[in-house]
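S.,

Sequence below, as promised.
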Amino acid sequence: MDKIWLHNYPKNIPENIDKNSYSSIVDLINDADKKFKNNIAFTNLNTDISYNSIASYSNKFASYLQNHLHLTKGNKIGIMLPNLHTFPVCFFGALKCGLTVVNINPLYKYREIESVLIDSKLDTIVVFDKFLNELEKIIDNTQIKNVIVCNASDLLSFSMKVIVNIVQLYKGEVYSINSKYHKFSKVIKCKNGFSEIKLSENDIALLQYTGGTTGKSKAAILTHKNLLSNISQLSLWVKSHIKIGEEVVITALPLYHIFSLTVNLLYFYYIGSRNILITNPRDLKNFVRTLKKYKFTVITAVNTLFNLLLTSSTFRNINFRKLKFSIGGGMAVLKSTANNWKKTTGCEITQGYGLTETSPIVSVNKIEDKFNSTIGLPLPSTEISIRDSHGNELGIGC
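The prediction came back faster than expected:
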């Protein structure tokens, strides 16, 4: 295969990535926890959590899964959460147990939830209490044995916990939790020891469901190696534009989606970034208030989200001096959107392309390039060809 795109590669980017230096995502997480233990890892609802605290919470979560739910390597666990502190704790803790994570859109209706639960054959699920009702409509039709319930106030500072609880009471969002379920607030108080699990890069990390273009959602099997490789590819591509341990990334795209999971959660955790989790980006007023408060250096979004932000006069008056790059994916970014974004922020939108099955990034434009409406260049160690229905490679322009 003639990799014609290599002629347009930046001089400092190699054709291929090196062999993964980690044997699993858990190794990557543990390494980041040691390197950046005193750094802020996540900020959500005015509450900061350090890398050291994330390590502690995720270990306790893993311990509970092992000692109380008796889950073992290879078991599957569903995570049905919005962007809250509880997401990385549950995700990291599950991987530390050697479990396979099944991410589930918390906005799914009961029939969609049922389809995923039955197909994946998982027996444990972590769910946000606000969406528990949809799960309960079909839970008896599934193999679910263990339900862990999270609340928006979990892991918040005392003052924010009080505020959130009052708001929930005012909005009528206080939910009765069945006594047979496990409350996250009690789960992370587990005092049992956590037994580390030996993992290899070929172990399955995710069953990531994707709608694709035909019928019901289907599970893409992603190994630790798949995720590690994509992190390595992205790391090479942006290395001259980032500072280890200093980046502040805005995560408004849902973490249950593969793009946000790999890029925002795993890659930026790997380089010691501070991750600003946006739970509800549709609440534009509070979203923009958060953006104004933190001097963010990176934002990832889709075309509709870029456009939504641009409608806010408050957003347009933010000081974007620290913003280094904006990554657009998930759908095509319109040229008009990119032009307005550049005019407002002074920063180009760097568009990329990917799919769930590729963990997800396949190609991306050079960070320093002007927006050009293309999907960019294949990342290192990526081969691309266009073929007909018989598998024959087609020429350029066919």
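DSSP finds 13 helices and 16 strands in the chain.

Coffee later?
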